[in-house]
Amino acid sequence: MTKILAIDTSCDETSAAVTDNLSILSNIIWSQASLHTQYGGVLPSLAQREHKARIDFVIQKALTSAQCLMPNISAVAVTQGPGLAIALEVGISKAKELAIKYHKPLIAVNHIEGHLLSPLANFKFQISNFKFPALGLVISGGHTELIKINKIGDYEILTQTQDDALGEALDKAARMLGLGYPGGAILEKMAKLACLRRQGDPKSYALPLPMAGKEQDNYFSYSGLKTAFYRLVEKEKPLTKEKIYNLAVSFQSTAFRHLIRVSSLTIRSSAYSLVPSASLLVGGGVAANVEVRKRIRKMAKEFGIKALFPNSKKLYGDNAAMIGIAAYFKFQRKEFVKDIASLDRLPRFSISDIGI
Amino acid sequence: MKIVDQAVIVLGRGGLIVYPTETTYGVGVDATNQKAVNKLARYKKRPFGKPYSIAVSDLKMAEKYVNLNQTALNLYQTLLPGPLTIVSMGKHLVANGIESETGTLGIRIPDYQLVLDIIKAFGLPITATSANASYQKRPYKISDILENISDKQRGLIDLIIDVGELPHNEPSTVIDTTLDDPIVLRQGEIKLQDKNEVLSRSEENTQNIGKELLQKYEPYLGKRPIIFALEGPMGAGKTQFTKGVAKALGIKDEIVSPTFNLVLEYPGLVHIDAWRITSAANFNTLEVNKFLSDKSVIAIEWAEKVQDIIRSYHDEAVILWVKIAYLPAQAGGQNNNDRLISWGTV
Predict the structure, then answer these.
(1) What is the pLDDT averaged over residues A20-38?
(2) Domain range holding B273?
(3) Of A82, A172, A183, Cβ closest to residue B234
């Protein structure tokens, strides 16, 4: 029984969770994008103030929902990066304060590792049966990374984005269609409607597949697609409902095709052979999109590997439970922060730098 | 008595109703009645400072309570009624605690005729928050609600409109339109002095222009902060330009878009996206003063949003304003890559 109080304040969301080994006892997220009517006040520039105002409440709520008191906690975990510096700072100071006050070990976690291991939350199988190297794909508003997992805690980035993250590209496409912000989820709805209306065969606009002709570079890139979409939207103005649906599905579909194409090429060309029945761990907000999950599953199948996704909706976006899951493995390896007072935020912390 | 009439009477007395929508069961009170809203807060057990969205019957009614910009109008016209909460700047005509602390207000037009009829007959907006207490299970049937609240909370409900179990649709999606407010862009067009212009035909071209401009200002490196204020529509190449600047500075890291993170810091270079920034105070929380005193090179995308703030750094920093504009696609529309890049001081 390793009970961990985990805290994540890497960007807009203020989150705290209590995990027990790989089980989630509570996962409280105070968020703008969350599906209750929780908007307001989350302009990122206010992030620091907002996090400060909410963090005690959110931690308290996480503890009471888990029916847990600080003395029963085995360790405190916190996101060290990557993220917005001033936002990270709030979670880190609070975690230090609690660790010192209650004499608990402190675990510093990489936010991307949290997303990567989020499919292991409430995992029903023996982790010891896991085959390595495994693969990971983190697709979110801020990151698009294909990762080789040598073992848990030892990662290599196989490829990542050169410019925009996938989630960011979807949000920006929605913005160009005049759908507000953050629009990725709306774009998905529009794309679905386009399919419904035309019996799964939506009218598609021609958009260039990113990096076509530069396949050997093995990079994700969304800047060219964004440019082409901008031109296309300008050309199609004024936009009707029907046009918006079809533009949405065209953009989304091209963006996903590119994701799968580069991922497949990279997996195929990477210098190691896949173990049969190895896993592909998929995390991050964009993975909540049903269409992208379908395409990832299909790709995994072609490689004879198994795609694993988080088992609850809350685990896709930013949340503290995933930080607790990553921290659990660090707890087992006894990777605690040596000098708590001097722990500093790492706004551009790369998952390949863990343990260095 | 008909359900609609009953609901109107209860709402008029400041009562609290539980009603079905196309998503979950919602809880409604008169959003303009302070006592009723206070009662709702007791029911929801909501912590401090969390706003409620409201439900209206149509666009006309929405316009009484919020200022709708073009983005919002597009959304209303194409997607409502439907499972969407659209956030706009409020007109402060609802009870305290409904709008957010920054004055924004979220509006729903539920795709559920009975609710639209009630609101129309009532003539005022009602709150549109899910009927569960905060952090409890999503309410798709009345028992989901009643089993998860206290006697005290149950006692606050004045009317339940039970239509059985609802299809398990996701709660409404919240969309913020206030970032597209023209008010944010009020500062007007920027006039360049000592203007230079060059054509870019590719991403590589744009990068090279960034590289060359940095080299031109190299004598100032480390002596004064150098600000590249980047202006241009989506996909124009602001990040590409910054990649070039980074190359000239010998930075090995991949320069990626700072939209999500707002600030990305590299050795000697800070890359900022100002699109979501709305005031000087907010901008300063990003520790810009520290970057200025470090004499960093600072590349700011969507610089026009924070034009006045950037101008205020005039005494301490070298400021170069860079505009990237799309050129009309050539006949046949084949070359999407032509941009006009102009720069100068302001």
Answers:
(1) 70
(2) 187-345
(3) A172
CATH, residue A106: 3.30.420.40
Query: The tokens of B318 are what?
Result: 């070298």
Spell B314-338 as b/e; 16+ CB within 10 A means b: eeebbbbbbbbebeeeeeeeeebbb
Say whether pLDDT at A149 is over 90: yes
Neighboring chain B residues of A35 at a CB cutoff of 8 Å? 170-174
pLDDT in tens, B161-199: 999 999 988 778 788 888 765 444 444 577 888 889 999
Using CB atoms, pick whichever of A183, A230, A239 lies closest to residue B233: A230
Which chain B residues are closer than 8 Å to A57 by Cβ?
A: 47-48
User: Chain B: nearest CA to A45, how far in angstroms?
Assistant: 5
For A197, the domain range is 133-310
For residue range B216-238, what is the model confidence (pLDDT) as tens digits? 999 999 999 999 999 999 889 99
Residue B334, min C-alpha distance to chain A (Å): 11
**CATH code, B208:** 3.40.50.300
Rg (CA), chain A: 20
For residues A87 and A156, state if they share a domain.
no
A306, A320: one domain: no
* A70 and A147 within one domain: no
Strand order, beta sheet including B318-326: B193-200, B339-345, B318-326, B226-231, B297-301, B269-273, B263-266
* pLDDT beyond 80 at A265: yes
Do B146 and B193 reside in the same domain of the chain? no
**Record: contact A347-B261, CB cut-off 8 A:** yes
Flag if B175 and A179 touch (Cβ within 8 Å). yes
Q: How many domains does chain A have?
A: 2
Q: Is residue A108 part of a domain?
A: yes
pLDDT of residue A45: 46
User: Residue B332's pLDDT is what?
Assistant: 46
User: How far does CA A33 lie from the centroid of its chain?
Assistant: 14
Of B72, B101, B256, the CB nearest to A162: B256
Q: Return left, alpha or beta for A84; rule: phi > 0 is left, psi -120 to 50 is alpha, else beta.
A: beta
Residue A303 sits in the same domain as residue A318: no
Kindly state whether residues B151 and B207 are assigned to the same domain: no
Question: Which chain B residues are closer than 8 Å to A226 by Cβ?
Answer: 234-235
Nearest 5°: the CA angle A272, A274, A278 is 140
User: Residue B276's pLDDT is what?
Assistant: 76
Backbone angles phi, psi at B97, to 5 degrees: 95, -10
Reported as a single tens digit per residue, the pLDDT across B103-152 is 889 999 999 999 999 999 999 999 998 888 766 778 999 998 998 889 99
Structure-model confidence comparison of residues A185 and A166, the more confident one = A166
* pLDDT computed for residue B181 by the predictor: 59
Question: Is the same domain home to B274 and B176?
Answer: no
Report the mean per-residue pLDDT for chain A.
89
Query: The domain that contains B107 carries what CATH number?
Result: 3.90.870.10
Q: What is the pLDDT of residue A116?
A: 98
Picking from B25, B45, B111, B174 by the largest number of A CB atoms within 10 A of its own CB, the best residue to mutate is B174
The number of domains in chain B is 2
